[in-house]
C-alpha cells in the first residue's frame, strides 16, 4: 500500500532507539523527510546514519536531519525548528518517567513527568497544528502507553502524566481540525522489546524479589501473542496513522499490545 506521504516532513522525538526509531525508520521507508531528536548525541548520530542508509533507497531519497537536544525544554524545541520550520507530521515521544512507589515521588518528580509526557507534546501540537491546518494536511501521533487504559501500579508517574495528555488530545482533536485535514491520535504501546521495558522489568524484580528472567517469561506468557512486540511493527502502525488513508481516524487511542488488554472497549 502506498501511504501517500512521500515528500512530507516529520519531526520524531526520542528517535535514537526503541519505538521512536521504529517510527522514524517506517516514515523514511515511505519517502518522508525526517528530523529526529534525542538527548544522547552518540546514539542519535548512529541512528541518523542508519536512517540515511534507509533513505538512500526510499522513494524520493528523503533527507534525514538530527539534533541532540532535550525536546522537553524550550531550547530543545528551538533546535528542532531550526532544522525545519513547517512539519506535516509530528510524532511526540519523550520517554517515560521511572517506575517506583508513589510514596517516594516529590513535587519535582511529578513536574518532570508532566513536562516530558504531557506539556511537551502540548507545546509541539501548539507550535505546529495551525500551520498544518493552513496547508490542509497534518498528522500528530503521540506515543503514550497502554497504562492509560490499564494503569500499571509501579508506573504512577506515567499513568498520571499520560492520562492528562490523553484528555487534552481528545478535546483538541474535535475542534474542527479533521475537517482541515489534520488528525491527532495517541498510539499506546504495550510490552515492546525496548530498553524501557527492560527498566520496567528491573523495577518489578526489585519490588517483588523475583528473578528478572522469570518475570520476563511470565509477562510474555500473559500476552495472547506470546511475545513482546518489535519496534519495526510499532513503526508500521505509526506510519499508517500518518498516512493519507488515516484522515478519518482522529482523537483515538490506538492500542498495540498483542491482545494483553482484557477489556472489550
Automatic annotation (TrEMBL):
Checking Gene3D superfamilies in the record gives:
NAD(P)-binding Rossmann-like Domain (3.40.50.720)
Top-down, what is the taxonomic lineage of the species of origin?
Bacteria, Pseudomonadati, Pseudomonadota, Betaproteobacteria, Burkholderiales
Family, as annotated:
Belongs to the short-chain dehydrogenases/reductases (SDR) family.
Organism, scientific name: Variovorax ginsengisoli
User: Residues of the signal sequence?
Assistant: none
The domain of life for this entry's organism is Bacteria
Q: What PANTHER family does this protein map onto?
A: 3-OXOACYL-(ACYL-CARRIER-PROTEIN) REDUCTASE, NADPH-DEPENDENT REDUCTASE BACG
One matching Pfam family is: adh_short_C2
Q: What is this protein called?
A: SDR family oxidoreductase
Amino acid at each position: 500500500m502506498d501511504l501517500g506521504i512521500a515528500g512530507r516532513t516529520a519531526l520524531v522525538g526520542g528517535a535514537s532507539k526503541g519505538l521512536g526509531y521504529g517510527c522514524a525508520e517506517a516514515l523514511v521507508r515511505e519517502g518522508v523527510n525526517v528530523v529526529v531528536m534525542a538527548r544522547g548525541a552518540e546514539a542519535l548520530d548512529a541512528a541518523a546514519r542508519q536512517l540515511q542508509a534507509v533513505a538512500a533507497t526510499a522513494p524520493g531519497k528523503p533527507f534525514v536531519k538530527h539534533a541532540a537536544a532535550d525536546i522537553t525544554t524550550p531550547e530543545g524545541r528551538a533546535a528542532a525548528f531550526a532544522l525545519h520550520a513547517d512539519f506535516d507530521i509530528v510524532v511526540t515521544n519523550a520517554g517515560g518517567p521511572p517506575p517506583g512507589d508513589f510514596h517516594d515521588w516529590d513535587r519535582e518528580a511529578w513536574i518532570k513527568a508532566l513536562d516530558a509526557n504531557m506539556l511537551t507534546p502540548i507545546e509541539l501540537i501548539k507550535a505546529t497544528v495551525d500551520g498544518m491546518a493552513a496547508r490542509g494536511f497534518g498528522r500528530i501521533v503521540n506515543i503514550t502507553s497502554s497504562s492509560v487504559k490499564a494503569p500499571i501500579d509501579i508506573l504512577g508517574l506515567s499513568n498520571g502524566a499520560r492520562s492528562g495528555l490523553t484528555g487534552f488530545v481528545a478535546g483538541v482533536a474535535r475542534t474542527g481540525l479533521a475537517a482541515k485535514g489534520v488528525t491527532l491520535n495517541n498510539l499506546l504501546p504495550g510490552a515492546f522489546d525496548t530498553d524501557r521495558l527492560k527498566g520496567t522489568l528491573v523495577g518489578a524484580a526489585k519490588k517483588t524479589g523475583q528473578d528478572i528472567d522469570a518475570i520476563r517469561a511470565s509477562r510474555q506468557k500473559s500476552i495472547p501473542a506470546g511475545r513482546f512486540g518489535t519496534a519495526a511493527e510499532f513503526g508500521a502502525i505509526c506510519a499508517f496513522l500518518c498516512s493519507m488513508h488515516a484522515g478519518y481516524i482522529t482523537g483515538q487511542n490506538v492500542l498495540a499490545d498483542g491482545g494483553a488488554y482484557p477489556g472489550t472497549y
